[in-house]
């Protein structure tokens, strides 16, 4: 199994933590899942989040595999190997933090750390049936994460349950204070998005089970924010990795994406920044009316490995519901919900006000608690 790029033990005897290979650990090379960095020297110092984890007495169990250069959503990596999705081995594990999600889902780590530029924590978490958080932009230190410069990327945690995810945020996010569960009947906005009807119905039922009052909500710039987010990703990734193209050093899929990214102009970026400002204001306004916003993490089940390799539309449809919140900078959490009749868990995404990661996590904990209570209720009628 290609979940880990390298396995080792450092730190105390606390929770087991896996670290994405785009985050520095002193004494270990940071290769970002790419042959282009096969000769990389060991990092001289830990990333800030690694220091925080070690200072907490937790144990780092290794560096996890990833979609090459964090520039892909499937998690498929033909150089390092592709991590197996523990809940659906025939389906992609999701990217780019594929190994981090797979390690937690397989029970190889209690917590994993990944990065999320356009959904790269939330998508693999949803694919593998666990929880994952993209914090408010800038709230968790990116020092020691690669690429060094990004106006979208966030370091965030994975866990199988909200208790561990909240514990991780207490460690890696200075000032994070655990917040009690929100009072019953919280008012939530359920975004109108294109989604598989059965999946949408199951997620709505989960919100109802939590006792939340949901109202439909439309954000007019949602689709534009998705497109603008890609413009920013392309511009910044070409600046970071464009020099690697044309040398036979990177996989064909990432090479093609980088070459396409090279055509992103300064004018394109300026237009995307206008969309960023508009959409961020729209989300802020919606959160004046609702405690949090809800929507699916992914619009359908993750594609199979065969579908992903055939460049099907299923791959293009993996990130439309997550990337907009990278552009806006709002905290966004995915919590696993059982999809009735499928045997799989899918993700319900919870989005909150900037800086209110604690409240978002409290809603996630309440959702998970309510679903656990529902499962334990005897003679429950379907």
Automatic annotation (TrEMBL):
<dbReference type="InterPro" id="IPR000120">
    <property type="entry name" value="Amidase"/>
</dbReference>
<feature type="domain" description="Amidase">
    <location>
        <begin position="17"/>
        <end position="173"/>
    </location>
</feature>
<dbReference type="InterPro" id="IPR020556">
    <property type="entry name" value="Amidase_CS"/>
</dbReference>
<protein>
    <submittedName>
        <fullName>Amidase</fullName>
    </submittedName>
</protein>
<comment type="similarity">
    <text>Belongs to the amidase family.</text>
</comment>
<dbReference type="InterPro" id="IPR023631">
    <property type="entry name" value="Amidase_dom"/>
</dbReference>
<feature type="domain" description="Amidase">
    <location>
        <begin position="251"/>
        <end position="361"/>
    </location>
</feature>
<dbReference type="Pfam" id="PF01425">
    <property type="entry name" value="Amidase"/>
</dbReference>
<dbReference type="InterPro" id="IPR036928">
    <property type="entry name" value="AS_sf"/>
</dbReference>
